[in-house]
């Protein structure tokens, strides 16, 4: 999707520097992917303590 947006220059410069992105487009895409990943992680957290799991974690760790 093609769009034009106004982004704070310092914010973009920081994003490019910290991520190593070579282009503004790459920096924006990395930011969107991170935002999506964080929101998915938040959605998963609501299941904490509500799912039943049967297994032997110690045994699983030995088989690595």
Q: Helicity, in percent?
A: 55-70%
Q: Structural class, please?
A: mainly alpha
Number of contiguous helices: 3
Number of strands: 0
Overall shape: elongated
Integer tally of domains: 1
- Element string (H = helix, E = strand): HHH
Main beta sheet? none
Q: Which parts are unreliable, with pLDDT below 50 for 5 consecutive residues or more?
A: none
Q: Averaging pLDDT over every residue, what do you get?
A: 92
**How far apart, in Å, are the first and last alpha carbons?**
43 Å
Q: Into which percentage range does the β-strand content fall?
A: under 5%
- Gyration radius, to the nearest Å? 19 Å
Secondary-structure map with pairings?
Blueprint: H1 9-19, H2 24-45, H3 57-62
Helix pairs in contact: 1-2
Describe what you observe in this structure:
With 64 residues, the protein is mainly alpha-helical. It has one domain. It contains 3 helices and no strands. Helix 1 (9-19) crosses helix 2 (24-45). The longest helix has 22 residues, at 24-45. The N and C termini lie far apart (43 Å). The mean pLDDT is 92.
